[in-house]
Design brief:
24-stranded antiparallel β-barrel, 2 helices, 60% strand
Amino acid sequence: MHGLTGITPPSRLTLFPYVSAYIGNDEDGGVGTNFNGGVDLKAGIGEAFTLDMTLIPDFGQVVADNLVLNLSPYEIRFDENRPFFTEGIELFNRSGLFYSRRVGENQQLINATKVSGRTDSGLGIGFLQAISADEYLTSYTVAVLDQNLPNNGFVHGISTLIMREGEGSDALVQGVQFQLKNPDNSYSISGRGSYNSIISEPEVAENSGHSWGLTVSKLSGNFTFYGSHYVDSKFYNINDLGYLRAPNNVGNTLALSYKIVEPFGRFTRLRSNASISHSRLYDPNKFTSLTVSGNINVLTNAFQFYMLSFEVSPVNAVDYFEPRIDGMFWNNPRWGYADFMISTDYRKKLALDLNVMRAVSFEDSIKWNSISVSFSPRFRFSDKLSLNYLFNLDPTWYQQGFATLEAGVEDEDVSIFGERNNRTITQVLNLTYILSNRASIDARVRHYWSEVEYLEFFELGIDGNLYPTSLVSLNADGTSELDVNYNAWSVDLGLKWYFSPGSELSVVWKNTLQSRGDLLPSNYFDNWELMLEEQFVNSISVKALYYLDFKRK
């Protein structure tokens, strides 16, 4: 429409005050109560920007994390479930340098503010500030500029800063990222660079590092490809407000893809790709791994999805992280796996996902092998009731990996490896029932069980090979204090009622357990009986949130 004048857009100001109450028991069986109150605010700044604020937020009703037994040297990354950090956060997540779970990770979050939007010239601006405190205050700041370029390109800059009161160190990370495309969007070149600095007294070389990467891609046509190169320096560390599995890497990847997006025969589309990746340690400049992978997937005219994939390590890898001692490495034997997946039509009332994976070692002297079977049916009984269930069985036999550190002859640390069997079973049940257009019930039950049985122990030599050891041994009955029986159980049952537009009342029951011991049950049902003897943590919470809209006069 043209020629309209004198129209003033309404102001955008919304408040969401809330109160909440909790009652529950702790791991020691004691019962306690807790009462909270706070407010969320959403306001428009002009026509293009939005201000979001939360004061004394309460995230106690968010779904429980998918806890797992971590045998690796790397930190587990968990999904973000807190609404403030999942809504309107795209600008902040683009670079991969911001991991929102760090905000208030080990402290009570007091308040958080974010401003985001994009100008008429295509400049995106984002600013996030949060404060948490227990004994000391911690401030989290993220600032972003993101400029759209011709041909769907962009240039992006981000700065993250965490400041800790008291003796804690501060940390700054700054990064840039770009993508340039030709006019028909058939080719692109993209790159990134970042630098971190941990601010402490006294300053040391380990407090700063850098990372950069470059990728060249062919984007259009049936045949596409990309080649990439990246560098993470030895002391590159973004983990104060970001997430990095491990630094000190140099990697190269070449990937080729072929796709058919027009229907042919019984198929709607076909996609396939193959890639080769090579990595080295940054300092010292040493080879670490070479892998070759590929997959092919098709979607039939009946909306059945099939995928076959594989990955192999054709040469022994050199792992500098598994030993847990700086400078030591482990010669990881050659391996490979194949994976097959079926997914049926989700439009039907009954759908099924099935995944089978088989992995083996290519070394005759290594008996390591594993299999993973995942079965997930989805039931849509009606427009009001739906249910999906996941069962995953993941046994591994004769796995070799780090077990513990022991003192050697001269009290130096010795990396002890173990050969072990590891059995993991995961079950997840999700149910949704819509009571009315204003009320619904959501339930999620998850049980994760993993047991580790050690069969033999070895000492890691300076040449990266494993040798018999007398520092650690099995007990006379074949058990070990390093055996692990781990359970993670969670129930999230919630009722949500929208008693007026934008206002809601939610009631949530949570039942959780995390247990770890060295007594191994003989089967799943024996483990279930042992788990029931543990102290579960129960809580019931009620939260009322009211919607106040000030845009109407």
